[in-house]
User: What shape does this take?
Amino acid sequence: LLGADGQLSQTIFAEMSALAVTSGAINLGQGFPDEDGPIEVLDAARKAISDGTNQYPPGNGLPVLRNAIAEHQQRFYGIYVDPDTEVLATAGATEALAATILALTSEGDEVITLEPFYDAYGAMINYARATHVTVPLRSPSFQPDHDDIRAAFSGRTRLIILNSPHNPTGSVLDRATLELIVELAHKHDALIVTDEVYEHITFGHEHIPVASLPGAFERTISISSGGKTFNTTGWKIGWITAPQPILQAIMAVKQYLTYVNGAPLQVGIATGLGLPDSYFTDLASGLARKRDTLGAGLRSAGFDVTTPQAGYFIIADAAPLGVTDAADFCRILPEISGVVGIPVTAFVHPANHGDYNTLIRFAYCKKPDVLDRAAAQLSGMK
Ligand code: PMP
Ligand code: GLN
Assistant: This one.
Protein backbone atom coordinates (compact mmCIF):
# COMPACT_ATOMS: atom_id res chain seq x y z
CA LEU A 1 0.00 0.00 0.00
CA LEU A 2 1.49 3.27 -1.13
CA GLY A 3 1.14 6.89 -0.09
CA ALA A 4 0.33 9.84 -2.33
CA ASP A 5 3.77 9.81 -3.91
CA GLY A 6 3.75 6.07 -4.52
CA GLN A 7 6.02 5.56 -1.49
CA LEU A 8 5.04 4.76 2.07
CA SER A 9 7.11 7.57 3.52
CA GLN A 10 6.54 10.21 6.18
CA THR A 11 4.16 12.97 5.00
CA ILE A 12 5.72 16.26 3.99
CA PHE A 13 3.82 17.94 6.84
CA ALA A 14 5.43 15.70 9.45
CA GLU A 15 8.87 16.10 7.88
CA MET A 16 8.66 19.89 7.76
CA SER A 17 7.12 20.25 11.24
CA ALA A 18 9.97 18.15 12.62
CA LEU A 19 12.45 20.40 10.79
CA ALA A 20 10.78 23.46 12.36
CA VAL A 21 11.24 21.94 15.82
CA THR A 22 14.90 20.94 15.35
CA SER A 23 15.88 24.22 13.63
CA GLY A 24 13.78 26.47 15.87
CA ALA A 25 12.31 28.07 12.72
CA ILE A 26 8.82 29.58 12.47
CA ASN A 27 6.55 26.83 11.19
CA LEU A 28 4.52 28.15 8.26
CA GLY A 29 4.47 24.63 6.84
CA GLN A 30 1.71 22.54 8.38
CA GLY A 31 -1.64 24.34 8.44
CA PHE A 32 -2.76 24.70 12.03
CA PRO A 33 -3.63 27.85 13.97
CA ASP A 34 -1.53 28.92 16.95
CA GLU A 35 -4.48 30.30 18.92
CA ASP A 36 -7.40 28.55 20.57
CA GLY A 37 -10.86 28.77 19.11
CA PRO A 38 -13.97 30.26 20.71
CA ILE A 39 -14.34 29.82 24.45
CA GLU A 40 -17.94 28.60 24.00
CA VAL A 41 -16.65 25.62 22.02
CA LEU A 42 -13.90 24.78 24.52
CA ASP A 43 -16.27 25.18 27.48
CA ALA A 44 -18.93 22.97 25.91
CA ALA A 45 -16.39 20.14 25.49
CA ARG A 46 -15.07 20.61 29.05
CA LYS A 47 -18.62 20.53 30.39
CA ALA A 48 -19.42 17.42 28.34
CA ILE A 49 -16.46 15.65 29.99
CA SER A 50 -17.61 16.78 33.46
CA ASP A 51 -21.15 15.69 32.65
CA GLY A 52 -20.00 12.18 31.74
CA THR A 53 -20.13 12.21 27.92
CA ASN A 54 -17.10 9.93 27.87
CA GLN A 55 -18.20 6.63 26.34
CA TYR A 56 -18.72 5.56 22.71
CA PRO A 57 -21.17 7.86 20.98
CA PRO A 58 -23.64 6.36 18.44
CA GLY A 59 -21.96 5.08 15.25
CA ASN A 60 -23.22 8.01 13.18
CA GLY A 61 -22.40 10.62 15.86
CA LEU A 62 -24.16 12.22 18.83
CA PRO A 63 -27.63 13.56 17.94
CA VAL A 64 -26.62 17.03 19.17
CA LEU A 65 -23.83 17.15 16.58
CA ARG A 66 -25.89 15.67 13.72
CA ASN A 67 -28.68 18.17 14.41
CA ALA A 68 -26.18 21.04 14.49
CA ILE A 69 -24.65 19.93 11.17
CA ALA A 70 -28.10 19.72 9.55
CA GLU A 71 -29.02 23.18 10.89
CA HIS A 72 -25.70 24.58 9.67
CA GLN A 73 -26.29 23.28 6.11
CA GLN A 74 -29.78 24.84 6.13
CA ARG A 75 -28.71 28.15 7.67
CA PHE A 76 -25.71 28.88 5.47
CA TYR A 77 -26.61 27.12 2.21
CA GLY A 78 -30.34 26.32 2.22
CA ILE A 79 -29.51 22.60 1.92
CA TYR A 80 -31.89 20.26 3.75
CA VAL A 81 -30.39 17.06 5.18
CA ASP A 82 -32.08 14.61 7.52
CA PRO A 83 -29.90 14.56 10.69
CA ASP A 84 -30.78 10.90 11.33
CA THR A 85 -30.10 9.41 7.91
CA GLU A 86 -28.02 11.88 5.88
CA VAL A 87 -25.35 13.01 8.39
CA LEU A 88 -22.34 11.04 9.64
CA ALA A 89 -19.75 12.23 12.19
CA THR A 90 -16.19 11.15 11.38
CA ALA A 91 -12.66 11.34 12.79
CA GLY A 92 -11.86 14.55 10.94
CA ALA A 93 -12.30 15.17 7.25
CA THR A 94 -9.45 12.70 6.78
CA GLU A 95 -11.50 9.70 7.89
CA ALA A 96 -14.48 11.02 5.93
CA LEU A 97 -12.33 11.00 2.79
CA ALA A 98 -10.86 7.58 3.54
CA ALA A 99 -14.21 5.93 4.20
CA THR A 100 -15.77 7.59 1.15
CA ILE A 101 -13.03 6.60 -1.27
CA LEU A 102 -12.73 3.05 0.10
CA ALA A 103 -16.51 2.53 0.09
CA LEU A 104 -17.21 3.89 -3.36
CA THR A 105 -14.29 2.80 -5.55
CA SER A 106 -12.67 -0.44 -6.65
CA GLU A 107 -9.65 -1.39 -8.68
CA GLY A 108 -9.86 0.05 -12.15
CA ASP A 109 -12.24 2.88 -11.27
CA GLU A 110 -11.02 6.34 -12.13
CA VAL A 111 -11.00 9.12 -9.55
CA ILE A 112 -10.49 12.70 -10.69
CA THR A 113 -8.84 15.33 -8.48
CA LEU A 114 -7.73 18.90 -9.05
CA GLU A 115 -3.91 19.04 -9.05
CA PRO A 116 -2.17 20.18 -6.83
CA PHE A 117 -4.26 17.85 -4.63
CA TYR A 118 -4.34 17.43 -0.86
CA ASP A 119 -1.95 14.55 -0.29
CA ALA A 120 -4.43 12.27 1.50
CA TYR A 121 -6.55 12.01 -1.67
CA GLY A 122 -3.66 10.47 -3.56
CA ALA A 123 -2.87 8.02 -0.76
CA MET A 124 -6.50 6.91 -0.38
CA ILE A 125 -6.96 6.47 -4.11
CA ASN A 126 -3.87 4.22 -4.02
CA TYR A 127 -5.21 2.27 -1.01
CA ALA A 128 -8.42 1.63 -2.98
CA ARG A 129 -6.30 0.56 -5.99
CA ALA A 130 -8.26 3.01 -8.10
CA THR A 131 -6.70 5.07 -10.89
CA HIS A 132 -5.89 8.71 -10.18
CA VAL A 133 -6.68 11.20 -12.97
CA THR A 134 -5.89 14.89 -12.43
CA VAL A 135 -7.06 18.24 -13.76
CA PRO A 136 -4.32 20.89 -13.51
CA LEU A 137 -4.77 24.15 -11.62
CA ARG A 138 -2.20 26.49 -13.10
CA SER A 139 -0.54 29.59 -11.69
CA PRO A 140 -1.53 32.38 -11.27
CA SER A 141 -5.36 31.89 -11.15
CA PHE A 142 -5.31 28.21 -10.14
CA GLN A 143 -8.73 27.75 -11.78
CA PRO A 144 -9.39 24.56 -13.77
CA ASP A 145 -9.80 24.89 -17.53
CA HIS A 146 -13.23 23.61 -18.59
CA ASP A 147 -11.82 21.60 -21.48
CA ASP A 148 -9.38 19.91 -19.10
CA ILE A 149 -12.31 18.95 -16.86
CA ARG A 150 -14.23 17.52 -19.85
CA ALA A 151 -11.15 15.58 -20.95
CA ALA A 152 -10.63 14.05 -17.48
CA PHE A 153 -14.03 12.31 -17.46
CA SER A 154 -14.41 8.89 -19.10
CA GLY A 155 -16.67 5.87 -18.99
CA ARG A 156 -14.61 4.63 -16.01
CA THR A 157 -14.91 7.77 -13.88
CA ARG A 158 -16.38 6.83 -10.53
CA LEU A 159 -15.64 9.93 -8.42
CA ILE A 160 -14.51 13.48 -8.86
CA ILE A 161 -13.05 14.95 -5.68
CA LEU A 162 -13.43 18.72 -5.42
CA ASN A 163 -11.76 20.88 -2.81
CA SER A 164 -13.09 24.41 -2.67
CA PRO A 165 -11.77 26.54 -1.05
CA HIS A 166 -8.61 24.80 -2.19
CA ASN A 167 -5.55 23.61 -0.31
CA PRO A 168 -2.82 24.49 -1.26
CA THR A 169 -3.69 27.22 -3.82
CA GLY A 170 -6.42 29.19 -1.99
CA SER A 171 -8.68 29.25 -5.06
CA VAL A 172 -12.48 29.00 -4.97
CA LEU A 173 -14.50 27.20 -7.67
CA ASP A 174 -17.08 29.40 -9.38
CA ARG A 175 -20.67 28.50 -10.21
CA ALA A 176 -20.07 27.88 -13.93
CA THR A 177 -17.32 25.35 -13.15
CA LEU A 178 -19.45 23.59 -10.55
CA GLU A 179 -22.38 23.43 -12.99
CA LEU A 180 -20.15 21.85 -15.62
CA ILE A 181 -18.97 19.26 -13.10
CA VAL A 182 -22.55 18.38 -12.12
CA GLU A 183 -23.47 18.04 -15.80
CA LEU A 184 -20.48 15.76 -16.49
CA ALA A 185 -21.15 13.70 -13.35
CA HIS A 186 -24.68 13.05 -14.63
CA LYS A 187 -23.47 12.23 -18.12
CA HIS A 188 -20.87 9.73 -16.86
CA ASP A 189 -22.89 8.50 -13.89
CA ALA A 190 -20.12 9.59 -11.52
CA LEU A 191 -20.36 10.77 -7.92
CA ILE A 192 -19.02 14.09 -6.63
CA VAL A 193 -16.99 14.24 -3.41
CA THR A 194 -16.51 17.77 -2.13
CA ASP A 195 -14.00 18.63 0.59
CA GLU A 196 -15.14 21.92 2.10
CA VAL A 197 -13.03 22.15 5.27
CA TYR A 198 -12.23 25.84 4.51
CA GLU A 199 -15.89 26.68 3.79
CA HIS A 200 -15.99 29.64 6.21
CA ILE A 201 -12.62 31.11 5.26
CA THR A 202 -13.20 33.08 2.04
CA PHE A 203 -12.12 36.63 1.28
CA GLY A 204 -14.84 38.31 -0.76
CA HIS A 205 -15.47 35.17 -2.87
CA GLU A 206 -18.66 33.23 -2.31
CA HIS A 207 -18.26 29.61 -1.22
CA ILE A 208 -20.79 27.65 -3.26
CA PRO A 209 -21.34 24.11 -1.94
CA VAL A 210 -21.77 21.95 -5.02
CA ALA A 211 -24.59 20.06 -3.25
CA SER A 212 -26.69 23.26 -3.41
CA LEU A 213 -26.79 23.19 -7.24
CA PRO A 214 -29.81 21.75 -9.07
CA GLY A 215 -29.46 17.99 -9.62
CA ALA A 216 -26.31 17.77 -7.48
CA PHE A 217 -27.38 16.62 -4.01
CA GLU A 218 -28.45 13.15 -5.18
CA ARG A 219 -24.88 12.33 -6.29
CA THR A 220 -22.77 14.46 -3.91
CA ILE A 221 -20.84 13.49 -0.78
CA SER A 222 -20.09 16.72 1.14
CA ILE A 223 -17.25 16.62 3.67
CA SER A 224 -16.21 19.18 6.26
CA SER A 225 -14.58 19.42 9.65
CA GLY A 226 -14.53 21.57 12.77
CA GLY A 227 -10.72 21.86 12.75
CA LYS A 228 -10.33 24.97 10.58
CA THR A 229 -13.62 26.66 11.47
CA PHE A 230 -13.09 26.50 15.24
CA ASN A 231 -9.26 26.36 15.53
CA THR A 232 -9.49 22.81 16.83
CA THR A 233 -7.40 20.84 14.32
CA GLY A 234 -6.31 18.43 17.08
CA TRP A 235 -9.87 17.41 17.88
CA LYS A 236 -10.48 15.61 14.58
CA ILE A 237 -14.23 16.07 14.47
CA GLY A 238 -15.40 15.93 10.86
CA TRP A 239 -18.59 15.00 9.05
CA ILE A 240 -20.25 13.87 5.86
CA THR A 241 -23.64 14.85 4.50
CA ALA A 242 -24.93 12.71 1.63
CA PRO A 243 -28.07 10.88 0.43
CA GLN A 244 -28.94 7.95 2.67
CA PRO A 245 -27.98 4.98 0.44
CA ILE A 246 -24.55 6.45 -0.28
CA LEU A 247 -24.01 7.39 3.35
CA GLN A 248 -24.90 3.85 4.46
CA ALA A 249 -22.19 2.40 2.24
CA ILE A 250 -19.64 4.87 3.63
CA MET A 251 -20.69 4.13 7.20
CA ALA A 252 -20.18 0.42 6.61
CA VAL A 253 -16.49 1.17 6.00
CA LYS A 254 -16.19 3.88 8.65
CA GLN A 255 -17.32 1.52 11.42
CA TYR A 256 -14.18 -0.58 10.87
CA LEU A 257 -11.80 2.37 10.57
CA THR A 258 -12.45 4.09 13.90
CA TYR A 259 -16.00 2.98 14.77
CA VAL A 260 -16.55 6.33 16.57
CA ASN A 261 -14.46 9.16 18.07
CA GLY A 262 -14.36 12.18 20.33
CA ALA A 263 -17.74 12.12 22.13
CA PRO A 264 -17.21 15.25 24.30
CA LEU A 265 -15.50 17.04 21.43
CA GLN A 266 -18.56 16.36 19.25
CA VAL A 267 -20.56 18.37 21.81
CA GLY A 268 -18.04 21.22 21.55
CA ILE A 269 -18.24 21.34 17.74
CA ALA A 270 -22.06 21.19 17.89
CA THR A 271 -21.92 24.36 20.01
CA GLY A 272 -19.56 26.00 17.52
CA LEU A 273 -21.83 25.29 14.56
CA GLY A 274 -24.57 27.23 16.33
CA LEU A 275 -22.47 30.39 16.98
CA PRO A 276 -23.82 33.66 15.55
CA ASP A 277 -22.97 34.75 12.00
CA SER A 278 -20.50 37.33 13.36
CA TYR A 279 -18.21 34.53 14.57
CA PHE A 280 -17.88 33.15 11.04
CA THR A 281 -17.38 36.55 9.37
CA ASP A 282 -14.79 37.59 11.98
CA LEU A 283 -12.88 34.35 11.39
CA ALA A 284 -12.56 35.18 7.68
CA SER A 285 -11.73 38.87 8.16
CA GLY A 286 -9.04 38.03 10.74
CA LEU A 287 -7.43 35.57 8.32
CA ALA A 288 -7.67 38.07 5.44
CA ARG A 289 -5.51 40.49 7.45
CA LYS A 290 -3.01 37.71 8.14
CA ARG A 291 -2.93 36.80 4.45
CA ASP A 292 -2.09 40.41 3.62
CA THR A 293 0.67 40.64 6.23
CA LEU A 294 2.42 37.52 5.02
CA GLY A 295 1.81 38.38 1.35
CA ALA A 296 3.50 41.76 1.81
CA GLY A 297 6.44 40.13 3.60
CA LEU A 298 6.90 37.53 0.87
CA ARG A 299 6.75 40.20 -1.84
CA SER A 300 9.35 42.31 -0.12
CA ALA A 301 11.55 39.20 0.16
CA GLY A 302 11.42 38.95 -3.64
CA PHE A 303 8.87 36.15 -4.15
CA ASP A 304 6.09 36.42 -6.75
CA VAL A 305 2.89 35.96 -4.77
CA THR A 306 -0.60 34.94 -5.85
CA THR A 307 -3.18 36.46 -3.50
CA PRO A 308 -5.39 33.59 -2.30
CA GLN A 309 -9.18 33.94 -2.48
CA ALA A 310 -9.65 31.76 0.58
CA GLY A 311 -8.20 29.35 3.11
CA TYR A 312 -5.03 29.15 5.20
CA PHE A 313 -2.30 29.21 2.54
CA ILE A 314 -0.47 31.52 0.15
CA ILE A 315 1.56 30.34 -2.83
CA ALA A 316 4.90 32.08 -3.35
CA ASP A 317 6.96 31.58 -6.49
CA ALA A 318 10.67 31.47 -5.64
CA ALA A 319 11.79 31.67 -9.30
CA PRO A 320 12.65 35.43 -9.04
CA LEU A 321 15.11 34.45 -6.27
CA GLY A 322 16.89 32.15 -8.70
CA VAL A 323 15.36 28.98 -7.21
CA THR A 324 14.75 26.11 -9.62
CA ASP A 325 13.74 23.38 -7.14
CA ALA A 326 11.50 24.51 -4.27
CA ALA A 327 11.74 21.11 -2.56
CA ASP A 328 15.50 21.52 -2.12
CA PHE A 329 15.06 25.20 -1.25
CA CYS A 330 12.48 24.37 1.48
CA ARG A 331 15.02 22.09 3.14
CA ILE A 332 17.51 24.98 3.51
CA LEU A 333 14.94 27.75 4.04
CA PRO A 334 14.75 27.22 7.84
CA GLU A 335 18.51 27.72 8.04
CA ILE A 336 18.74 30.80 5.81
CA SER A 337 15.54 32.54 6.93
CA GLY A 338 14.26 30.80 10.06
CA VAL A 339 10.96 30.05 8.29
CA VAL A 340 9.46 26.70 7.19
CA GLY A 341 7.30 26.32 4.06
CA ILE A 342 6.05 23.35 2.01
CA PRO A 343 7.02 22.79 -1.64
CA VAL A 344 3.89 22.64 -3.80
CA THR A 345 5.30 19.59 -5.60
CA ALA A 346 4.28 17.65 -2.44
CA PHE A 347 0.73 17.96 -3.83
CA VAL A 348 1.60 17.03 -7.43
CA HIS A 349 2.36 13.76 -9.24
CA PRO A 350 6.07 13.51 -10.13
CA ALA A 351 5.25 13.50 -13.87
CA ASN A 352 3.66 16.95 -13.51
CA HIS A 353 6.22 18.57 -11.20
CA GLY A 354 7.48 20.80 -14.04
CA ASP A 355 4.64 23.30 -13.71
CA TYR A 356 5.09 23.65 -9.93
CA ASN A 357 8.83 23.25 -9.30
CA THR A 358 9.45 26.75 -7.95
CA LEU A 359 6.28 27.20 -5.87
CA ILE A 360 6.15 27.15 -2.05
CA ARG A 361 3.08 27.05 0.19
CA PHE A 362 3.18 29.16 3.36
CA ALA A 363 0.49 29.02 6.08
CA TYR A 364 -0.71 32.35 7.49
CA CYS A 365 -3.06 30.98 10.17
CA LYS A 366 -0.67 32.35 12.81
CA LYS A 367 -0.63 35.23 15.31
CA PRO A 368 0.11 38.67 13.80
CA ASP A 369 3.44 39.01 15.62
CA VAL A 370 4.56 35.59 14.33
CA LEU A 371 3.72 36.64 10.77
CA ASP A 372 5.51 39.98 11.23
CA ARG A 373 8.61 38.14 12.43
CA ALA A 374 8.42 35.64 9.58
CA ALA A 375 8.01 38.47 7.06
CA ALA A 376 11.01 40.34 8.50
CA GLN A 377 13.16 37.20 8.51
CA LEU A 378 12.23 36.34 4.92
CA SER A 379 13.03 39.91 3.80
CA GLY A 380 16.35 39.76 5.64
CA MET A 381 17.27 36.60 3.71
CA LYS A 382 17.74 38.59 0.47
N1 PMP B 1 -8.86 18.32 3.51
C1 PMP B 1 -8.11 19.41 3.35
C2 PMP B 1 -8.18 20.15 2.07
C3 PMP B 1 -7.28 19.85 4.39
O1 PMP B 1 -6.52 20.93 4.23
C4 PMP B 1 -7.23 19.11 5.58
C5 PMP B 1 -6.35 19.54 6.71
N2 PMP B 1 -7.15 20.24 7.60
C6 PMP B 1 -8.05 17.99 5.71
C7 PMP B 1 -8.83 17.61 4.65
C8 PMP B 1 -8.04 17.15 6.95
O2 PMP B 1 -8.96 17.62 7.85
P1 PMP B 1 -9.07 16.96 9.32
O3 PMP B 1 -7.95 17.52 10.13
O4 PMP B 1 -10.42 17.41 9.79
O5 PMP B 1 -8.97 15.51 9.16
N1 GLN C 1 -4.33 20.22 6.44
C1 GLN C 1 -3.10 20.65 7.03
C2 GLN C 1 -2.14 21.09 5.95
O1 GLN C 1 -2.44 21.01 4.78
C3 GLN C 1 -2.48 19.56 7.89
C4 GLN C 1 -2.23 18.32 7.16
C5 GLN C 1 -1.60 17.18 7.93
O2 GLN C 1 -0.80 17.38 8.81
N2 GLN C 1 -1.92 16.00 7.53
O3 GLN C 1 -1.09 21.58 6.28
Observations:
- The chain has 13 helices and 13 strands.
- Residues 150 and 184 are 7 Å apart (CA to CA).
- The mean pLDDT is 96.
